[in-house]
Amino acid sequence: MATRVVSADAAVVQVLNGRNYLDWSVLVKTYLLAQDLWDVVEEDEEEADDKFKDWRKKNATALHTIQISCGWEAFSLIRNTSSAKRAWDT
C-alpha cells in the first residue's frame, strides 16, 4: 500500500508507522496539549457526561489529529473507533 503523505499543516511531520511510536507519541501529545485536547485522550466519554457536547467536539478534534498522523497500517487498527482515548491506547 502507498505511503501516506503528511501535509505542511499536519500535527506532526511524520505519520505513525511500526517503527516510530515513541517519537510520534511525543509530538502528537505535545500538539494535543497545546490545543487543549489531551484531556479527552485521558478520559472516556462516560467520565465527561456533564459537559458532553464540549467533550464530543474535543474528542473529534483529537481523534482526527491522531488519525491523520498515522500511516495506513496504524490507521487500519483505529479506523472504526470513535474515541480519541481508545485510538491513542491502541
Structural account:
InterPro entries: DUF4219. It comes from Prunus dulcis. Residues 16-42 form the DUF4219 domain. With 90 residues, this protein is an all-alpha fold. It has one domain (21-89). It contains five helices and no strands. The chain has helices at 21-34, 38-42, 52-68, 72-78, 84-89. The longest helix is centred in the middle third of the chain and has 17 residues, at 52-68. It starts with 20 loop residues before the first helix and ends with a helix.
Structural class: mainly alpha
**How many structural units, i.e. domains?**
1
Question: What is the rounded distance between the termini?
Answer: 21 Å
Q: Give the overall pLDDT as a whole number.
A: 81
What does the radius of gyration come to? 13 Å
Number of strands: 0
- Let me know the largest β-sheet: none
The low-pLDDT segments are: none
Fraction of residues in helix:
40-55%
Task: Tell me the strand percentage band.
Answer: under 5%
SSE topology string: HHHHH
The best one-word shape is: globular
Helix run count: 5
State the assembly state of the protein chains. Answer: single chain
